[in-house]
Amino acid sequence: MHVTKLLPLAALCLALAACADKDQPAQADKAPTSARAASSPATAQGHAAALPPDQAANSRPPSVSQQARRYLCPQGPNACPAGGPLIANSDAEAQWLLRHGYPTEHELARLETLTLDQLKAESQAGNQPATVIYGKKTALAGRFYQGIDILRRAAVAGNLYAYYGLSDVYVSDTANKNLVDSLAYLRLAYLLGDAKASAVIASRGLSSVENVVADERAASLHKTFSKYQRPSPRPLE
């Protein structure tokens, strides 16, 4: 009697199990897009590994260390102790220059030849040195406050090279020329970690009184302009 009642129930269970097995492939096809996206990098890596070594190497962007090495002294480590602010004597100093938006000497020469539109495009693409040259050229082209604002925002974001741009603007022969402010922005770069700014400061040849006034102005700018930004010491060996 009980066996007779259980037979239909067992048959129903078997039928349901068979239906569930048929539905599983369809459910797998409906996996969330995010899960598919998460698997994409592994697939891409698999394709990259299948490329010939020379093609695989060319498909990768230059590493940070490769970019930083462009700043190194051409004669080798520690061979340019008196090098300018764009020259690095060690890998650590080269990384510091890259991180804080400095151009190489070659890159600076290239950027100086570009138009404002070209500089703007490179700046918008994330080129930090281009942002500085764009701000400087904008200020010197008659849009003074717009250019100063570009440089100010770059400086506040951590681009220490922007202080060199600000100094260049104020030392130029325009209606806004101000030698004390020009020196003060270099002094601010020094206070924020760029010890090599001191050589540029010395080259300006200002009087003792002007240097004192510039120091006071730099202290004021440290409060009002850079909002007491924490120093990032340049590695000097």
Automatic annotation (TrEMBL):
<protein>
    <recommendedName>
        <fullName>Sel1 repeat family protein</fullName>
    </recommendedName>
</protein>
<feature type="compositionally biased region" description="Polar residues">
    <location>
        <begin position="56"/>
        <end position="68"/>
    </location>
</feature>
<feature type="compositionally biased region" description="Low complexity">
    <location>
        <begin position="28"/>
        <end position="44"/>
    </location>
</feature>
<feature type="region of interest" description="Disordered">
    <location>
        <begin position="28"/>
        <end position="68"/>
    </location>
</feature>
<keyword id="KW-0732">Signal</keyword>
<feature type="signal peptide">
    <location>
        <begin position="1"/>
        <end position="20"/>
    </location>
</feature>
<dbReference type="InterPro" id="IPR011990">
    <property type="entry name" value="TPR-like_helical_dom_sf"/>
</dbReference>
